[in-house]
Amino acid sequence: MLFFFFFIYLVLIFLNFTAFASQMRIKGLAVFSFIFIIIVMAGNTMNADYEDYAYWYESGNYPIIIEPGYELLSSFFSTIGISFSCFHVILLSTSVIIAWHAISKLIYNFHLLLFVYLSYCIIIDTIQIRNTFATSLLLLGIFSLTNGRKFVFILLITIASTIHYSFIVFMVLLFYKSIVSFVIEHKKLLILISASLCVFAVLGSFLQNDFATLVGMVWGDAKAVYVKSKLFNIVYLVFPFLSFILASLSRDFVVYNIDKTNVEQVRQSEFADIILSAYSFLLLLSPLIILSQDTLRIHRDLNVGLVLLVTIMFCLIWEKDSSEKECIFTVNTNLYALLTFSLFCLWMIGGQDWPGYEEVFGNNMVFNEYLFSPEFSD
């Protein structure tokens, strides 16, 4: 069953890319892909936290650090007699629907977005529970911000923060216009910082043992072990570097190539500014990654936004009347950056063995218990 599920996944990736490359819009394919994503995310039971969430839900013994919004929501469903598996399906399905509602306001051709999302984003999002729901509220909030509805944005981010505390950071997007102005003025400096982080990350990953040994010789083994554990996180500094560069490239293309008389494209331009401002702010926070890998959660929360921005850029490229040479150069350059970004994400999740796909597609309760159960077949 895992092989069959995975086969459908690969076919959908291929069909969505083919549809986009052929400049086709196949509504049935988009709808089926959307349903597939809901089934994958809502039915997943193999993520590392599933059993913990189930225990909290059924026992009512939530840890002190759990966010009040999530505890209130899950307690309500538990009180009215809904099982945890049903609650999980409802919460994740709602998350996907909310996110898709926000996305549909920004683009009209879903195939490239589905291709990229299925390629790696789904691997990240499926193994999350609170983050996925909070991310959907973030996307809806960003869409509201593109329309100037700041109160709605504040409300949605506040709710998202009660589901996962890390989302309070995105309140900074209220000042996205000021941040983008700063980025434009100091872009060369930020690119230099990004490149330095990348070089530092690569060198640090190779030299961490030597440096830890040197620390051990001076301050003892305990300090050496601590320093080595922190230096291991240096490699993850590549993540904010790739994110910022990709966001910057995509934003510039979108902003300078939109039709300013087209309301939808003006909204896309505002969205591009918001995403760039977010990754610019996260770039400044990137040194915190060395202290804790948990800082990467904030980058992961914004993954869908970056993918959506890149999708908007590619759609504009296909619509432009630029020369074939310029178009091919732009597409290949950005696609290379995107693939590099994607491969890094997969490596980060799965390590050298890349076990992520089995965790995502294995033992899916919607697929096994509802679609292919003996009761359903009868």
Instruction: Give the C-alpha Rg.
Output: 22 Å
Q: By helix and strand content, what is the structural category?
A: mainly alpha
Distance between the termini: 19 Å
User: Helical stretch count?
Assistant: 20
Question: Uncertain regions: pLDDT < 50 for 5+ in a row?
Answer: 350-355, 373-378
Number of strands: 0
* Shape label: globular
What percent of residues are in strands?
Answer: under 5%
**Helix content class:** over 70%
Largest sheet: none
Mean pLDDT: 78
**SSE order, one letter for each helix or strand:** HHHHHHHHHHHHHHHHHHHH
Protein model, in words:
With 378 residues, this protein is mostly helical. The protein has 20 helices and no strands. The chain has helices spanning 2-21, 27-43, 50-59, 68-79, 84-104, 111-126, 130-146, 150-163, 176-185, 187-219, 221-231, 238-257, 263-285, 288-291, 296-301, 303-319, 324-350, 356-361, 365-371, 374-377.
